[in-house]
Records
---
Amino acid sequence: MMPRGWLSITARLSLAFAMVSVTLFTGVAVYLYRALDQQLMQRHMDELATKVVLVRHTLEEIASATDVADAMLRSPNTVSAPDRLHVRLLGVDGQLLFASDLVPIPTEVLGSPAPVAEVPSDFRVWKNATGDRYLVTSAYARLGKPSMQPLLISVALDVREEHDVLLSRFGARLMLAVVSGTTLAALLGWLVAARGLRSVRRIAAAAARITSDRLHKRLDERTAPAELADLVHAFNEMLARLEESFSYLEDFSSDLAHELRTPINNLMGQAEVTLAEARRPEEYQLLLESNMEEYGRLSRMISDMLFIAKVGRYQMPLNREDVNVRSAIEKILAFFDALLEERGIEVALRGELIVSADRILLQRAITNLLSNAVRYTQRGESIGLVIFREGDGRATIEVNNPGPPIPPEHLPRIFDRFYRVDRARSHSYENSGLGLAIVKSIMRLHDGAATVSSVPGDLTRFRLTFP
Amino acid sequence: MKILIVEDEPKTASYLCQGLGEHGYVVDVARDGLDGLHLAIEQDYDLLILDVMMPGLDGWGVLKALRDRKDTPVIFLTARDRVEDRVKGFETGADDYLVKPFAFSELLARVRALLKRGKTREPEILRLADLEVDLLRRKVIRAGRRIALTPKEFALLTLLLHNQGDVLSRTVIAEQVWDMNFDSDTNVVDVAVRRLRSKIDDPFDKKLVHTAHGIGYVIEDRGA
């Protein structure tokens, strides 16, 4: 396994899931707990208020304070749920007239009692010595005889069983729900993330299977999820470029090996035959001279190959300057003068332009095109050199010659290394098979292009186009 | 004239030593950088030929150490032709730079050029056997007969005469006569030499311009 970041995407996603769900669940749980608490409390307050109304009702039917205890005990409504609800009646001067049991609620927790005609609204919570909670309220009540002083009713509800225990049970269940919900969410998050990332793993596995001898393989772009399609596409493009460079290199070495084979074979064979017997010095001299020609060819081939290789890796410095193409060509024509005259070939030079280029490289490119043209031009015919601008303004140098057109199947590869239209002439002293490849390299270095057109009935035209 | 060759490759050292020796130079060979530096400092050489890639102290190192003491001209030989190397070579103080494989004739021409630098005045008239070239009046006379040459033919003839007895490669000729500073796969130089011969050699019994097969051309008087 390769080292990963401190947390995998799967772990991060499930952690995020867990955090989101713990927040949500806790929020909901707190809300539910509070709501239940309030709901219950409201019910207790209603119960107390109802009790106050019932007690008042009972008291209205009696006329003397001494009858209070009897009336209370007789009335079935006043002491319902006696174990939870406690009622006490006090006289104006504070003496206890009735108590449903022995719970001594201190007077200071009674708050402000509701007046005779009103429903109690001041509810207090009181905790006794053992920690039990009571909800307490108080109100005034009048006896049947209006002239009598009102009595004070105090009611207390034991909320331990029906509120506190219930609520704490509910709270515990909520906690459990939050914990298990969160765990479940994290687990689900992990599953979802792992499933979602499966395609990433699949792509990685597919990529890992691509080796230098299997560069033609590609990742499947159709099955990749939309988010990864771009990545997969870019990866495939990179593979295509790699494959191209790879096959270029392979061709390069095999071309080179083939080209070396013939001269090396000549050198070995001639030397072997010559050395097999004692010979006259002139014969040795002849051998060495013949060898020198092969060596010269090999040496030129090596420097041409290195030139192309350097251009391919953009390691060739380009000394751009404004070059007057016409005078550059005139200089080349002076060089070719003797050859052209001997071959009986005319040259017509037309046009004039200044281009930004490396003078020596440009001359080299034109020289190669010209020597190529001379090779295929018959005595008495004329080579044309035309300098002009294309319709889109690009500077162009054309070298054209008459003669039979180049067969169309050769055109796409004519600028390739060691590609020769005329295989029979492939090992002539003149034609290294690299001339046009060098032209192409030079133009590429200038961000320009070298093109050829050759159709029956027209001249063969080689063009150098500058951007 | 004394030349020191510092080269670790025995075959290269041997043929350079032989070739330069046969052209009248006194040649010493050092097989590594330290020996070379020692010799170059201890003795007075007119020229150093230094291989760049050597085990131990390489060509750069030798030249750097040498330049603190002496100004002996130096020609670098290298199998690597990277621009940085070339720049480094000239910055370190090399006088010339040759990339392997190179023609021996080219090395010889550069050795001559370096040793001649700023020493001799150009003669006004060049002579070889019954051939006479007047550089000022641009006149060519052989066996008393005036021969008309084109300007390029004249330049080619004077180049050959300046280097009488030395073989000049096609590359050197193209560079010196036409200012074509690159190799091309044409036989232009051969044609030009053939035309020159047709004017200065063909009408006469004694031939002066000779072909060195696979190397180039040389002008010399080889007797009858």
---
Amino acid sequence: MIEQAAIVMQGSGQRLIIDICMFFGLFVIVAMALNFQYGNAGVPNMGSAMSVAFGGYLVTGFIVRILYRLAESAGVTLLPYNDNWGWLYNNYANTVTVNTFMVDNPTLGLAVFFFSLAAGFLFGWFMGYVVSLPVIRLGGTYLMITLITMADVVQLFGINYVPLSGTTLGTWVPDPFEFWPGDRGLILSLVTMIFSLVCYLILRTMLNSPYGRLMRSVRENEITVGSVGKNVTGIRRNVLMFVSGITAVAGVLVCWYYAYGVGQSYARATWTYWPWLMLMLGGPGNNAGTFIGAALVIFMRRLIVVYKFALDDFIFFPMVFFENMLLGSLLILVMIFRPDGLIPEKLLRIPGINYRRLVRETTEVDWKATTRSALSTEEAS
Amino acid sequence: MACLAGAMFPYWFLSTPRIGAMLLSACMAGSLLGGIESTYAAMLGGFVVGFAQVVMTLWLMSLLGEWMGAYRLMIPMAILIFVLLLEPRGLVGVIERLRATTVGKQIESRLKR
């Protein structure tokens, strides 16, 4: 039954479509998280690559070990993996062995997969708190600089620390959907799309809640919000932690999709600059714009990646540079011609309040009478 | 000037097209330590950060082991965080604070004489 369904679904869906759906889901999660943070709370997070890396490191450094231990406890013999040498060089063989074991254990695979999503969120949330301790009081540009630097350092740990993600050789990740005879990417892209939809609904509800309005007021004027007794630092910290958790789940998902994790894959360009381009292209402050921005950029990127050899004949420079040139030129064009993005920010939807009417309402002031009374007060004094 | 610095880089360090990204944190730490408002202070800050990165990496390598050399980028990050938390305006801010004190004013008047 499962086999027949897999063959039918694989036949109808091309690999490119699965790839586009997967990356669309992943980048929509990251770009929506950025939108929630920058577009609504005014916290410019240039360290989203760091949160993605936290999710990836969780899978390669912790979840893979759990899978190995579970397989060993079920009687599967694995090559030594507790020392650095064993972790690096026996990793592939162990992954193949665990995959064979996972074919007959679909429940275990699914349980570990969903556990990794929950653990990824909690780990990202906690690390968001740790990161926020030294930086959350910093203003716009300084916060951006510090978070960029922190993301670099987190990537550095992945590149150099063997138990985390196997340094430059990387770590192979067993397939939790090994029981599925078709393409693993199909299930993962579906899960990612569903998760991005759930994220959209959660973020939308949060933005339309009183806390969302508080966030927007922090974005507009921190001093005013602080003067009425609100904890501005606490609000910024909460936002950073929540967003870090969501972004870490994207890191977990990308690790399962590649079935591999390596420090270099959490690059600043991929997980910070591209999501920022999606955000700026769609328009900060609204999730619909982020969806459109992410869809356009992902579609272009995946087409370039998949058809690079075909496109190479039409361009006089190597195709590998075109992706980064596209990033730079699109950012410049958006900032010059559409600084508000394709869909500018709209008014909030607040249940029970016609906010549009309130904003359009004009106040009539009798300036003559006001001036007359002011003059008479001056004369009397 | 930045181009000149980049041209000098491959003579001493193993360089790749991505080396600029790895230099970014040290550059930012240097300019912030000195103070963004002053060119001379930024030069001093850059020198201090570069010196600290090399010396502290060597010291930590002798203290903790050779593996510490790979994490030398953490030193500019630590400097960056400390500067931003203690005095976001860098050395320029420290000098202005000193000028505001009585002792600072006395020193300034003596120097003017």
